[in-house]
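Figure 2 data, in text form.
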Amino acid sequence: MEQFPEQEQEIKLRDYYRIILRHIKLIGIIFVLVMVATIYYTARAPRIYESNGKILLELNKQTDLFFSTGGFGRNDLNNQMEVIKSPSVMESAVEKLKRNQEAENFPILSLDNPSSILAKNIDVSAEREVDIIDISFKSTNPNEAQAAVNAVMDSYQDESLKYTRAEVTSVREFLEKQLDVTSKKLAISEEDLRAYKIAHEVFALTEETKEMITNMVEFEAQLSSAQTELQIVEKKLAYLKDELIKIDEALGEEMASISSPVSEQLRQKLIENESQLAILLTKKGYTENHPQLVSLRTEIDNIKRQMKSEIAKILEVNKYSFNPLDRRQQLFTDIISTEVEFQTATAKVSGLETVVEEYSVRMSGLPDAELELARLERSKAINEQIYSMLITRYEEAKISEEGKLLNTKITNLSDVERYVKLPILGTIPDIPLDEKQLADIEDRMGKEKDKERLQELTTTQRQMVARLVPHYSPKSPIAEAYRTFRTNVVSLPFKVPGLGKIFLVTSSGPKEGKSTSAGNLAITLSQMRSKTILVDCDMRRPMIHNLFIVSRENGLSKFLTTDNIDIHDIIKPSGMDNLDIITAGHVPPNPSELLSSKKMDELFAKLREEYDYIIVDSPPIIAVTDALILSKKVDELVLVIRVNSTEREIIEQAKSLLHNIDVKVAGVVVNGIEVKKYYSGYKYYYYYYYYYYTDDEKGAKKKKRKTQGHSRLSRKA
């Protein structure tokens, strides 16, 4: 009886098996049909392309102290994301798409209400813990996917530019009117002075009167400048309050007059201090660094901080709460800051008026003829100074109006292609330097002696040395990135066949990684068994000696300032095969003159004869003329750019300076790439081969990963 269940189960399994065998042909046919249908459907399904872009949001550098949180809050990011998907931005983006050369092939433009469809299909999201917004769009047309993201980003920038330009535009227009008025006044004063001198045959003033006029003109010019500044701030404050009234009439009227007994006391105290400061400046012996003047200025700064705090308290009493999706919060903050600017400007005007009045009284005691001539001379001089000041302010306003962009930094590879427009010779991932990652670098080191050397150094020295990744961690992806950079550099044509080739590695501004890039390029070249030397020509802020932990003394500056010295006296071993170093030496008072000397030409000529490659590190192009001088002495110039650091305007300025002296940039190295965000740029096809190795007995393993930054290809299921 106990065996019946087993027999019954065995019978059932046999039955199923027989059924399968009986219908095996039918099952096979069904399986084949399903597979064929799946393959056919998959093959016929349209390919979907996705394009991605990033926007880096930055706080205004003059953000109010009481409301700045050190970055954009989640509400701020949500606010900007809503702006991106707003009808005005979408409609502008569609118009840009219509002007595209391939617009007739864009599916979205053939649909009804394309701006609404674009808003529904554009994906806008914020990255965690950073002020970056990601924008992506999918389409069956790769060019449409790319163009849509570009159009949305450009339209959003236009919208932001229109908003941020508004107040500076009003200032620029005001200055234009003032320039016209002052120009006419200056012409009249010049003619009046000329006519008076001819009519009365009076052409000179006494020395005492000249001195009095000079001082008075100086303070009247300061007064006029302060009055202009007051008018500018007043217009800005009025603009901000009008904008607030448009959004919230009750709140706008409340902020139209911000006052309290405490704020009035502070305002009066500010006026007194500004008056006292102006009076002291007229007295002999009171230089800018005089203790009394320094103390007064410190007191004025303290009063301004107290006023800002008091105004914030007045408004906090009302306990205003803001919808994060409107502009009231930013306007609220700007009004507080501008109100303090207005009170400060008012106090300064009052103080200078007191000083000018004193001089007017003194001048009234002059003889009539001399008094009139003095008045005319003063009028002409004042109008000249005012006109000059207005010209300066007007140009500043124009620059500010043109420069009011949401973001002007290079944030990814697509920005390099779009704005820099130079060949990309290398892309270097960011080099992390915390203790955990330093330990990881030590673990990956190829030689035991390198590990021992690194452990003997201080933390600061270890951080510097660890930047030399191609030597200390040759199997890392960062080292591979530098080798790719090397390959592209070596492929550049030789200008002087048969002699060593000189590369200048520089940057547009400071802290972009030029010294590290120069050092690692030199290491990778030496690893090809090419005789290489690294020359630190940055004699202002030298770094190469810190990177390689060698003595800075007996360096380049000594060779350039000493007669009868051999170049081998300044060449130092790097501790690496085929690589030598010339450090900067002591900091001289005249680096530019030394670099342009014949001895510098002599040094390069001798190095060409002895080395295959000479890598030169120089100061940034914008900072000083050193890089421009060296650029005329080398074969190729490589520009280092650091993402989220390098300003587009600075790069343009650097390119312009090089263009003016007929120097061509061979290409750029994009430094500081974050690997996780590295592949998401739009409008840029990029293939990056990521290698990793294991040191087992079977040998090195290699893996390749291909990523397309512009469009990712997928199948629609």
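Caption note: The two ends are 55 Å apart (CA to CA).
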